[in-house]
Amino acid sequence: TTEIYYDDDADVSTLDDETVAVLGYGSQGHAHALNLHESGVDVIVGLRESSSSRSAAEADGLTVETPAEAVSQASYISVLVPDTVQATVYENDIEPNLEDGDTLQFAHGLNIHYDQIEPSANVDVTMVAPKSPGHLVRRNYENDEGTPGLLAIYQDTTGNAEERALAYAKAIGCARAGVIETTFQEEVESDLFGEQAVLCGGVTSLVKHGYETLVDAGYSPEIAYFECLNELKLIVDLMYEGGNMEMWNSVSDTAEYGGLTRGDRIVDDTVRENMEEVLEEVQNGEFTREWILENQAGRPSYGQLRQAEQEHDIEEVGERLRDLFAWADEEDADAETQEVP
Ligand code: NDP
Ligand code: MG
Ligand code: MG
Fold first, then answer.
1. Which ligand is nearest to the CA of 26?
2. Are 319 and 223 part of one and the same domain?
3. Which residue, of 137, 158, 183, is where some domain finishes?
4. Relative to the CA of 81, which ligand 1 atom is closest?
5. Most buried among 29, 256, 298, 327, by the most CB within 10 A?
6. Could you tell me if residue 337 is inside a domain?
7. Same domain, 250 and 144
8. Hey, how many other C-beta atoms are within 10 angstroms of the C-beta on 139?
9. Is the Cβ–Cβ distance between 197 and 279 less than 8 Å?
10. What is the dihedral of CA 307, 107, 191, 289, to 10 degrees?
11. pLDDT tens track of the chain, all 341 residues?
């Protein structure tokens, strides 16, 4: 069975004699650095001299050094720069400054699992991966709430890799909610598959196909937008709260019967076969090779695909409708303020 750790299983004082270098001050970096700092852990933020995040980190009361300097001062290195630059940052700034027994930590296992970084043999290599965007990791911590996270040990040279990583997970607030033990392989492969097949790729394609089907059949784009995109949030909120059954139980019997009889006709066995193909490309490294080459070439296809997505009718319709909603909300707010003497 899967191990899940909570606050009682971890001790932040494990990190009392350590300094943590948080490299990067973006989505995850700012949240980890601030949460660690407020949990009483010594933190240095590592950023390039030219970095636009420097002033933010300094304004937040944190010490900022160059990545190389931060690594050399620290014993615990948390790599929170974008995945696509980690191998270069490792080579230039991290590896030359690592010492025996340091911890090298990631929030996503891509570079380790696909051998883009071959970590030095004298350090612990761990992962603490909050299952949420950084701004929520920060907001939850401030509200005394937790953010679920994953923990994995790739290399344990000190014998204390797990204890130290758990202390870190507790200090950023993850152990309040629960920290699930996994491996680098499982985290990376399931994460890439999930975002490609279901979360980001699958769901946007489903929405666009639904929207196009209605609009091509002569229905109004506004109605199609509400039906296929806007209402998705309400359905997903119910699934999030109580699983598929909570959703089925909340919609009308007509919606439930229609969905149960038609759903598998839409997302049918061919879709399942496509998913298996996509999973295979994740497992055999084909996807990651493609992504690395795409980056080396300056992201030509990525740019074109984003442009095409931006130009889809649904974007223009959505923008117009969301403006109308904002306008309606403002009206409400005005009405309320006017009632107050
Ligand atoms: P961001 O894109 O938000 O990181 C940006 C930060 O990295 C900035 O401070 C930027 O500073 C710095 N940076 C960029 N390039 C370099 C460089 N070459 N050298 C030094 N610093 C650099 O990253 P995320 O927080 O999104 O991701 C960090 C890690 O967390 C990744 O491994 C990601 O997979 C993982 N993760 C992300 C989640 C998310 O929701 N975003 C969720 C869970 C895990 P500068 O101003 O110098 O560019
Ligand atoms: Mg991901
Ligand atoms: Mg993910």
1. 1
2. yes
3. 183
4. 7
5. 29
6. no
7. no
8. 14
9. yes
10. 60
11. 889 999 999 999 999 999 999 999 999 999 999 999 999 999 999 999 999 999 999 999 999 999 999 999 999 999 999 999 999 999 999 999 999 999 999 999 999 999 999 999 999 999 999 999 999 999 999 999 999 999 999 999 999 999 999 999 999 999 999 999 999 999 999 999 999 999 999 999 999 999 999 999 999 999 999 999 999 999 999 999 999 999 999 999 999 999 999 999 999 999 999 999 999 999 999 999 999 999 999 999 999 999 999 999 999 999 999 988 875 555 555 444 444 44
| 32 domain residue, yes or no | yes
The letter for the amino acid at 271 is V
CB distance 108 to ligand 1 below 6 Å: yes
Same domain, 279 and 307: yes
Is 25 marked as a binding-site residue?
Answer: yes
Domain closes at, from 183, 204, 239: 183
Judge whether 339 lies within some domain: no
CA of 150, nearest ligand number:
1
- C-alpha 335 to ligand 2 mean position (Å): 42
Spatial separation of the C-alpha atoms in residues 274 and 277, rounded to whole Å: 5
- Distance between CA atoms of residues 304 and 298, nearest Å: 12
Q: Is the CB of 28 under 6 A from ligand 1?
A: yes
Is 108 annotated as catalytic?
A: yes
Q: Are 166 and 9 in contact (CB under 8 A)?
A: yes
Query: Which residues neighbour ligand 2 (ion) by CB within 5 Å?
Result: 191, 195
The pTM (predicted TM-score) of the whole model is 0.91
Structural domain count, the chain = 2
Ligand 1 contacts CB of residue 67 (under 6 A): yes
Give the CATH number, domain containing residue 54. Answer: 3.40.50.720
Domain range for 284 is: 192-328
